[in-house]
């Protein structure tokens, strides 16, 4: 049986992974939470809170289910107390990719992050609630990206299996590097994708403010979002109409800087990672 300590067990992600592991005979959970609110949520869900000292001493794996901005401070407190051979698992690449946590050769360090259920995979879910599990709360299938920062391959295989159980149901677990994961998040998803989506929402609000009925606008936009994604991402054997293709080219000139792709450059990526993990 693997002893798993979950730091931040009362937070959103901590509760999510606790639900995923609860009742699994392969794991003994040590739920660690500092905040009164988080401790209350754990108790209301029927969980038993562990003293940090006891849970960390027993742990084979320590999961950092805590905000990026405090991860380095918590790691600085926790890592020196862990016995040799313990694995640490971060749920976001930022604190490792930014160098906030120095390598400790006596420990094993890994990073995992869920992809969240893909748009078109949700359509294949049989259950209605699963089709609305946009986040990946344990109903809809999703994939993971998993990286070894340092440590043994034996530990990597064990922690990768733990990660798949935490975020089940899992379709695929993709092994990549920590740097590659940082390219995916924050650069590709949080910076680029969410930036574009936020602009789309602002555009919808502006159209509504100019008098187009809200329900008509939302229905029209949601349908065109789906078909646009299907065509541009080659999910449909179809081409944009001539007018739509022309509008797409014009949008690139009007909406985007010529050097927008600099968000993927190492200097900008590191600046973003440092900001996420607490600034300078």
Automatic annotation (TrEMBL):
GO molecular-function terms, A-Z: NAD binding; oxidoreductase activity, acting on the aldehyde or oxo group of donors, NAD or NADP as acceptor
Domain Semialdehyde dehydrogenase NAD-binding per the UniProt entry, residue ranges: 4-79
Entry-linked SUPFAM superfamilies: NAD(P)-binding Rossmann-fold domains (SSF51735)
Residue ranges occupied by any Phosphogluconate dehydrogenase (decarboxylating) C-terminal domain in the UniProt entry: 125-277
Pfam family, one: PGDH_C
Protein name: NAD(P)-binding domain-containing protein
Classification of source organism: Bacteria, Bacillati, Actinomycetota, Actinomycetes, Micrococcales
